[in-house]
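Backbone geometry tokens:
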Amino acid sequence: MEPVKRFVRENWLTLLVLAVLGIAYLFLRTPGTPLDSVAAFDARLRQGQPTLIEFYSNRCSICLASKPTVDRLEQRLAGRAAVLRVDVADPVGRELAARWSIAGTPAFIITNGAGEIVYLSYGPPQVTELEFALAMAKQPTP
């Protein structure tokens, strides 16, 4: 028992940091939109309203840091646009990322009501830019 006590005494700061990081990960990881197939994803895209699609990974630090921003944006868009979160570690997410040629995470795509891409961005979300692109997605296509 003495070696364990000595280890804890000598490494308490490291253990504390690891515990805090573990708890932060549990709170910051993004719950994906439940999708059981690519067809279910396609059906959600064609519901007639603009859609914000976030391709993310829970192993991506930028994705984890972006989660609170995307959460707030999702609350602000309630009823005006759909938000789909696609985990690229999930089999359906991998297939969708390959189909849409997603090169990295986080990636943000905005589609119009017909499912056509009107905006694509990689990196941390710029809320005003996303809101502007969503407003433009509501405009009828000529």
The helical segments are 2-10, 12-28, 38-45, 61-77, 91-99, 127-137. The chain has a mean pLDDT of 83. The first helix runs from residue 2 to 10. DSSP finds six helices and four strands in the chain.
